[in-house]
Task: inverse folding
């Protein structure tokens, strides 16, 4: 046991200790990070530069892209620096800061994906009321509500860790300050840790997923009533990108946070975390641009 007053740093876990493999990982992670940042910046530029894309759907998409840049920047640069310096140490304050930002941005991703499902539900199921229901004022309110819930979730984790009087040891079995790892290391009441884990799971997982399922249940019911196959295909195509992003994000994220320590070895947990902290933000611009003619044409005009 180490008293909180003596805690000055934590030791993070790396993917490999092999110097040759570390160079390969450095190149891979740096490339993925640059692709993520550039891809999402291009998506934001495309939406902001084309007046035809100034709609609620693309408003939320551009905010998702901005959030993905912040999300991946919370963990990946530190991991890249650690590989270069052969040091996996992070200060106590730095760890708490990274954890708070990580929870904030992952929760924002979660909220934005849910809001985007609601946007598609209104567009397909209530097209005549779309302009009123998803007005600019309502979009701003939905975004502010997402930010507020994300801040509450972030500070909840931060408060629990700060209340802990000691830690079992200083080694975090992940490449960043994983909130679930810090809770398991803290000497706070186990019941309190369990409550925080499942409250977070409800806020980040259960309620948003139920909202997304309900939206897509209504969307599918409405689309199946369209008589022409071309009309059904056109309606479904507007949702396919969002559905792909949702499956990728929740499939990896919920597995990490609701899975038990028995089910996930540290290496498996790190790979799963890598999927939704690095791979998901990197793939989102491709998912939304390759399946969307409006974004594709705008990007072509910008790049050519």
Result:
């Amino acid at each position: 046991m180490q008293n909180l007053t003596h805690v000055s740093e934590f030791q993070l876990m790396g993917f490999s200790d092999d110097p040759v493999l570390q160079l390969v990982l450095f190149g891979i992670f740096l490339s993925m990070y640059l692709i993520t940042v550039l891809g999402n910046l291009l998506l934001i530029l495309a939406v902001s530069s084309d007046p035809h894309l100034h709609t609620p759907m693309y408003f939320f998409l551009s905010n998702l892209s901005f959030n993905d840049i912040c999300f991946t920047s919370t963990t990946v640069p530190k991991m890249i620096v650690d590989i270069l310096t052969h040091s996996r140490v992070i200060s106590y304050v730095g760890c708490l800061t990274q954890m708070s930002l990580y929870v904030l941005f992952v929760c924002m991703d979660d909220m934005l994906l849910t809001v985007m499902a609601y946007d598609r539900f209104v567009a397909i199921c209530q097209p005549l009321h779309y302009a009123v229901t998803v007005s600019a004022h309502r979009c701003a309110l939905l975004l502010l509500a997402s930010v507020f819930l994300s801040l509450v979730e972030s500070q909840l984790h931060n408060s629990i860790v700060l209340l802990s009087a000691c830690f079992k040891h200083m080694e975090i079995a992940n490449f960043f300050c994983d909130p679930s790892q810090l809770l398991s290391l803290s000497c706070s009441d186990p019941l309190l840790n369990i409550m925080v884990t499942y409250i977070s799971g409800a806020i980040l997982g259960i309620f948003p997923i139920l909202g997304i399922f309900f939206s897509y249940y209504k969307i599918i019911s409405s689309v199946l009533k369209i008589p022409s196959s071309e009309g059904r295909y056109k309606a479904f195509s507007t949702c396919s990108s969002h559905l792909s992003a949702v499956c990728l994000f929740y499939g990896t994220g919920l597995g990490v946070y609701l899975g038990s320590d028995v089910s996930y070895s540290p290496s498996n947990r790190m790979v799963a975390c890598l999927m939704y902290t690095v791979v998901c933000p990197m793939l989102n611009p491709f998912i939304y641009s390759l399946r969307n003619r409006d974004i594709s044409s705008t990007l072509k005009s910008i790049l050519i």
